[in-house]
Amino acid sequence: MINNYVVAGSKSWNRQVFDKTIVKYPGQWFFINSTQDLTIEQIDKINPRYIFFLHWSWQVPDELINSYECVCFHMTDVPYGRGGSPLQNLIIRGHQETKLTALRMTEEFDAGEVYCQEDLCLAGNAEEIYIRATHISAKMINYIIEYEPEPKPQTGEVTIFKRRKPAESEIPEFNSLQQLYDFIRMLDAEGYPHALIRHQGFNYKFGRASFYHDRIVADVTITPIEEIE
């Protein structure tokens, strides 16, 4: 019997990895990138063995979670770091590496049982890290569909991360160039509000930063404040 699988992803790199790698795995594969297509009615037509969420910013309906085996990829060694904005929360806390965790989705965010984990390096800007994580997620998907492992309960002390808000992208005062560099790079990704400074009627947004021992070199986009947000 050939199984059907669904991959949900909201970012361009999710689709690229799906088309280049995941679709070649055994089975019939379907890609979803909008909430309009992620309904119980649409999913029932596919009847997937698993639904994999590579990068999904919207709440998944409980009806879907309770009807199908939904797997998400969370960028922490859960139960440490449950919650929103895991990459940004990790970097701002000084982490240089983490665990990418494949876990079963439940009605409680990031509290589900764990299928498997892989090491994830946090070097580079946010988009580079997200792309790296997507490639690793693809390998984990291959493992899950081949072996269908029984997920295991999380163990350890629960630590909750708070989802960051766009207003928190304004650069605060730092004690070192390293801290400033980390702040800029952790927000440098498609669809994220870049690190910025507001000064005399203009926004200065920073991206593509490189850090040397005595300076940061970055692209700066300057726009009137009234045109932003």
Helix content: 25-40%
Summarize the helix and strand pattern as letters: EHEHEHEEHEEHEHEEE
Which fold does the CATH topology of the largest domain refer to?
Rossmann fold
**Using only CA atoms, what is the Rg?**
19 Å
The helix/strand class is alpha/beta
For the record, the CATH architecture of the largest domain stands as 3-Layer(aba) Sandwich
Tell me what you see in this structure.
- This protein is an alpha/beta fold.
- The protein has 2 domains: 4-161, Rossmann fold (3-Layer(aba) Sandwich), CATH 3.40.50.170; 166-227, Methionyl-tRNA Fmet Formyltransferase, Chain A, domain 2, CATH 3.10.25.20.
- It is built from 6 helices and 11 strands.
- It has helices at residues 12-20, 40-46, 62-67, 86-92, 126-147, 177-186, and strands spanning 4-9, 28-32, 50-55, 70-74, 80-83, 97-104, 114-121, 159-161, 195-199, 202-211, 216-224.
- A 6-stranded mixed sheet has the order 2-1-3-4-6-7, covered by helices on one side. It has a 3-stranded antiparallel sheet with strand order 9-10-11. The protein has a two-stranded parallel ribbon with strand order 5-8.
Q: What order do the helices and strands come in, and which of them pair?
A:
Layout: E1 4-9, H1 12-20, E2 28-32, H2 40-46, E3 50-55, H3 62-67, E4 70-74, E5 80-83, H4 86-92, E6 97-104, E7 114-121, H5 126-147, E8 159-161, H6 177-186, E9 195-199, E10 202-211, E11 216-224
Parallel strand pairs: 1-2, 1-3, 3-4, 5-8
Antiparallel strand pairs: 4-6, 6-7, 9-10, 10-11
